[in-house]
# Entry
Amino acid sequence: MPARLKRYLIGLHPFQLLVLVICLAAFTVVLIFPLFSLFSKAFVDKSGDFVGFANYIKYFDTPSLTISILNTIDISLWSTLFSVVLGFLYAYALTRTRIIGKVFFKYTALIPIFIPTIVHALGLVYMFGKQGILTRAGFFPFELYGRLGIIMAETIFTFPQAFLMFYVALDFTDGRLYEAADSIGVSPARKLLRITLPEIKYTIINVFFVCFTLAFTDFGAPKVIGGSFSVLATDVYKQVAGQFNFSMGAVVGTLLLIPAITSFIVDRLVSNKNSGTISARATELIIKPGKKRDVFFFIVCSLVTAFLVFLIVTLFIGGLSANYPYNLSFTLDNFSFNRSVGGFGAFTNSVKMAVFTALIGTGFVFIYAYMVEKTSGGSVLRKYGKLLSLLPLALPGMVVGISFIFFFNNRANPLNFIYGTIIILVIANILHYFSVPFLTASACLKKLDKEYESVSDSMNVPRWRTFLSVSVPLSLPAILEIFMYFFVNAMVTVSAVVFLYSAKFKIAAIAITHMEEAGDYGQAAAMSLLILGINVLVRILYEAGITIIKRRTRIKEA
Amino acid sequence: MTLLEVDKVTKAFDKQTALKDVSAVINQGELVCILGPHGCGKTTLLRIIAGLETADSGRVFINDKDATYLPPAKRNFGIVFQSYALFPNMTVMGNILFGLKQKKGVTKFEAKRRAREALELVDLAEHRDKYPRQLSGGMQQRTALARAIALSPQFLLLDEPLSALDAKVRLKLRGEIRSIQQTLGITTVMVTHDQEEALTMADRIIVMNNAVVEQIGTPREIYDHPATPFVANFIGTMNFYDSRGEICAIRPENIEIASGNAAYDAAARVKAIEFKGALTRIYGLLADVNEVWVDLPSEQADALCLHPGEMVYLRMPEDRLVKYAAAA
# Structure
């Protein structure tokens, strides 16, 4: 081997090199190749000839299509605005006030994460639809289907994300700043404007983009509650699944990438200025008593929580009654689902898919992160790996879905055999949700002493053994978190899989849309309850696991 | 007999040179300290010897065989890091067995026996079932040492092994490490920024500064005959002054005070007197410009009855003077 190559690869054992190359190759095949198919589809006509920007020109010349752009921006802006305000107030209440019931409030805020966005919409139908509980009580004289419904559903969808990001940002501060302000008699309003908000200004920007992108690309809620109000995500579906106009579908699909790409650029621009945040000597913030403040924030939290709890209660009412709203007698009949949507099998299929996604995804993410973060040598390969790992963050589920169709549903592709099987669903889910677990895993691995590997090398212990006996056990909390993240998201996702499921393998979240379309609201609610139930169960198991691990580490430290 | 040899090694990280043309030889059985200020490249040199970094140019020899590109696992060394890098999820015994258990030709029983031996050597046998976080810093350090020597490596690398410890524990461990090293007769390379540690523990010292080797020699040679002004200044305390186009250097304890009428080399005005216990340091100004420090046994200083502002007459014994060419 030439000395240069030898030097470049030293520290990278042949086995490690093999694993790294396999990881990167696999990722390239399921990420870069399909994306390439997507983009190339956008620039060809139906017969496959290259037409340049003709598809885009045609798109922008069709007012019935372009209206969706404005519609999507409109609903995304409004729902983002509501989520940012509510998320901030809610997080502020939990971190900076002395209200009671913080633990309860924290967990109820997470409810929307555990159910598909179609169910947020379904819940709204139960509350505010034509036969809705509140509509019948005369509290809601508006038309739910369309713009208003979408904005409400996307607000519910994005609220937990906004809340969690604000929570982390507000929870982490330097109490000395506020003590210093108090010592020179700064008013509460000024403290908020001059200390609190500047401290979290980058979080505000991030929350804005995250919520906007989620609302912009969501398919589930507009599908159920959108009525004739068209948005980009439903357009993609109509073009691809309804009219088989793949080129136009690809064009709209690429438009869905715009907010994520914009946020990437903005993030690059602001992140350089975001360094040097909190000193290691920061002290904990001591929250002073404040009766009026606490009452105000308690009311805010209670209203939000009441709304979310009510949403779930309506699902219980709908799912467990014979024929809502006409016959409210208790029944479990709704759980025997129609054959046409996959029956109860749709649910077990979903669980199967979520388990495989979580198992394979967790293993793959963790090995991938380990190879990228913890090996030396092959730095170009590892940089490429890092770049790939963050790309899925910019990809909406719809884009993953259609690019998978374009790439895998092609007889010439040797991987064509996975099309229509559970395998493609699992791969799509792992890819779609890859970035957040990767960041979790790599942050966790970075915290481990980088000399563990050096010590093992000196003792001639193979890296895989160090990986299994040191890195994995020490990262168990992160591994559980990643597992849960994959599982829950695989249970609730619609957008990525709506193009990829097959008649032989139907899944729960999709079944809900079909039940809702067919007017089987009771069954839709029942299925939603099952998804909610298993996700909450997995979350409880996760919390229990973390508690056990913490207790065991405490014993080792006592 | 030469065990390790580093020949004209150069290494840069992102254009910053960590090592420039560094050459050194380490003999069988000796303890060599690599000493230098923060960022001088000493840890990089150690990591290149370990194979954890690779030289950009130059070669590394182990047992006279070219090991420049040999992976760490094949170099047969034990290493102790500043952070110790003990596996927190394993007991003391588990940490030591981790390497032994998978060594070829070592039975389970044999592995346990050797681990116990290593633990006894560092006096930790009774703590073998504890986890690292349950141990004091010094005990963690000794566990790391036991882990490094349990595999009977050919040489031992210590990267600032004592700098995370309190001063008292540090002093005690200095002696312990040295005595274990001598008992085993194991070749050891230790990186440190603490000159006292290097002087007391090392057979030989490699003094580095700004990516280059300034001097290699025994502690005595380095202290008495520092090859460069940097070494003179970095190790111990040194007075510098110009004399006939040369820079002269002398340690404070080597300056003698002449009685007024005897022959003397220089006159100094006393600025301050500082009692430091056994010694008293006199701060003076040579020819009212050059600062000079003189250390005297306190008794002798008392007898002289000096006061600030007084003149004293100093003798600089020729055999204690170190001379350098004046900087261009």
